[in-house]
Design brief:
Elements: H1 2-20, E1 25-26, E2 28-29, E3 35-41, E4 46-47, E5 50-54, E6 59-65, E7 71-77, E8 82-88, E9 93-97, E10 103-108, E11 125-131
Parallel strand pairs: 1-5, 3-6, 5-11
Antiparallel strand pairs: 2-3, 3-4, 6-9, 7-8, 7-10, 10-11
């Protein structure tokens, strides 16, 4: 009985956390004209998992992980000219790029253990929205 109660509480908490990430997080535009945002990889998730940046403006992502499990960040889109793959470390790593066209793409972790689903398949992915103008 206690196990079922624990599972019910954990499901409710996880669902609440996932719904809290529905609205995209806007990158902050600093005085030097660079959009900045931090992304943290955890146990098969990214926080935030939806981000919004402006096209034509440089972006600097500070990426890291909170777990011992190896994770990476992959952002690929030929139309936008993005081909990024970086290992996440406990200390932040800077990822710099300038998206030139508006659109949406998925960023993800492509790590996997032999015979197990990939981290992306386990939910470690997010959405990058590139817009012409920030709201």
């Amino acid at each position: 009985m206690r196990r079922w109660l624990w599972l019910l509480v954990m499901t409710a908490l996880t669902t609440g956390m996932a719904s809290a990430q529905q609205a995209p997080v806007l990158a902050r535009l600093d005085a030097d004209g660079v959009q900045r945002l931090s992304i943290v990889g955890g146990n098969y998730h990214f926080r935030p998992d939806r981000i919004r940046v402006r096209a034509g403006v440089p972006v600097e992502l500070e990426v890291s992980r909170t777990t011992r499990t190896p994770h990476d960040l992959v952002i690929q889109d030929a139309r936008m000219g993005l081909d990024i793959a970086v290992d996440l470390e406990r200390d932040p790593v800077l990822v710099r790029f300038t998206p030139e066209v508006a659109g949406r793409l998925v960023f993800y972790c492509d790590q996997r253990l032999l015979f197990f689903p990939s981290h992306r398949d386990r939910g470690m992915w997010g959405v990058l929205e590139v817009v012409a103008e920030l709201e």
